[in-house]
Amino acid sequence: xxxxxLDPTGGTRVKAASAVLTPQxxxxxxxxxxxxxxxxxxxxxxxxxxxxxxxxRHGVATTVARTKTNFAMPVSAELxxxxxxxxxxxxTGVGDCGSCSASAVADGVAFERQGxxxxxxxxxxxxxxxxxxAELREAKGYRYAKTAHPVAVLTPEEIRxxxxxxxxxxxxxxxxx
Length: 177
Hints:
InterPro entries: UGSC-like_dom, UGSC_seleno. By secondary structure, the chain is α/β, with parallel strands linked by helices. The protein has one domain (33-175): Glycerate kinase, domain 1 (Rossmann fold). 41% of the residues lie in helices and 16% in strands. It has a 5-stranded parallel sheet, sandwiched between helices. β1 (32-37), α1 and β2 (62-67) form a beta-alpha-beta unit. α1 crosses α5 and α3 packs parallel to α4.
């Protein structure tokens, strides 16, 4: 099959009714937001900046920062449970390469299937990979926030600017408005 796309995570496909997998979105004021970074260069700083902006502008009460052990693998069941138990929503990324973009989308879909609203951040150079993973996870049309590529080489000031630019999409994805 020449046009087949293999799931690099080794996961199984699960049917979903729509790209918005959990209809319940989050109210940001007073919320606890998980920040799941994937060890890619500048991912932690990008998510930290988003967390600051969400606290300052949208009344988020607190953020819970966690790190995946491998950017190309799905979030572990243990880490998923921890974030699902502690957080009202999760932001994950930054997808700044093919495998980490696919993995970030797989994580977002997995959180959504657990009833946790999730916003995924991917660089615009890897939307084909991100979209392919969403389709493999039976979540065609899954929405994620995009940022210009690359992220890894940016200065802290440039990361702050990118977080500002991504904030409206993240808020819309998490809140549904």
